[in-house]
Amino acid sequence: MSQTIQLSNLGRADGSASYSSNGYTVIAAVNGPIEVQRRDELPEEAAVDVVVRPAIGVGGSHYLCCLLRPSLTICKGVRERYLESIVQRTLRQVILISAHPRTLIQVTLQIIAAQETQNISSDLHQSASNLPVLSALLQASIFALLSTSIPLTKTLTSTLIAISPGGDFIAHASALSIREASSIHVLAFSSLGELLVNESEGNFAITLWEEVFDKANLICRGGEVDNTDGDVSMGQSKGNDLETSLKQIMESKVGTDQEWRRASGMKLPSDINAIY
Question: To 10 degrees, what angle do helices 242-257 and 206-221 make?
């Protein structure tokens, strides 16, 4: 998988990251904990707000979209709200929200580049065009959060898998593969092995989804499936999975950020897990 990550690339945000993969480029900015409006205040935990901005235009309101273009089936604002709800629900499971009650953690995701799938006719339902960018949004979010001082309970990795009409599994599918796919799936796993996101579009059987789960787990966490009983054992094929890549990127960033400690003779943690 080819991916490009740049951390802390925005000077005025508490944390930021740029993530490019599979034809999508997303810039994420995180600010927080900051003051929250009284109506959104939660007494025992932090509120998490996610804003998704499309590559072209702005995500307007559903009322305005219907007023100006009543023939449009699904307006652009609804698409952004759909993606925001998934990302917000996922990040609430990742962030230690109990550490900062009565505050707000704001995540802004700007889509810079996207595959040209919106104008391609497909057998999939129209809302399926939302899923290809979801994985990039999740990846950009976690990298931006890791560049802040906001405590996390875990990290996450996400991938997209398309199923061709012939039953082939296509990881990190192109626009053409998505157009021709019988189903597409976006899954995200936590660093603890939990399934955080499971979004699918198209026609597929439950047995096929189980194969998708195993394939996505292999891509994200490097697990291998034991064909005798179906159990997934972790860590047997580590080195080329997204979780290992995430740790290597963060090790490099921590080493750069802590250069002053090395220069002053202070000892650095040898294990990335010790940093978290």
Answer: 30
Mean pLDDT of 36-48: 95
Tally of CB atoms within 10 A around 253 = 16
Peptide bond into 43 cis (omega under 30): no
Q: Which of helix, strand or coil describes residue 243?
A: helix
Pairwise CA distance, residues 7 & 233, whole Å: 31
CA-based radius of gyration for the chain? 20
pLDDT, tens digit, 9 for 90 and up, residues 68-86? 444 444 455 788 999 999 9
Which DSSP letter does residue 266 get? P
- Look at residue 240 in the predicted model and tell me its pLDDT: 79
Q: What is the pLDDT of residues 123-175, one digit of tens each?
A: 444 344 689 999 999 999 999 999 998 999 999 999 999 999 999 999 988 88
Q: Across residues 234-244, what is the average pLDDT? A: 68
DSSP state of 152: B
Instruction: List alpha helices for the chain, DSSP H.
Output: 62-68, 76-94, 131-146, 175-180, 206-221, 242-257, 259-264, 272-275
Angstrom CA distances, 98 to 13, 30, 50, 179, stand at 22, 18, 18, 42
Phi, psi of 274 (to 5 degrees): -65, -25
Give the strands of the sheet with 195-202, arranged side by side. 169-171, 156-163, 183-190, 195-202
Return the SS3 of 112: strand
Q: Is-contact 33 101, C-beta < 8 A?
A: no
What is the three-class DSSP state of 223? Answer: coil
Angstrom CA distances, 16 to 137, 168, 218, stand at: 13, 36, 27
pLDDT confidence bin for 223, thresholds 50/70/90: low
Q: Which two tokens stand for residue 49?
A: 């707000």
Q: 115 or 11: whose pLDDT is higher?
A: 11
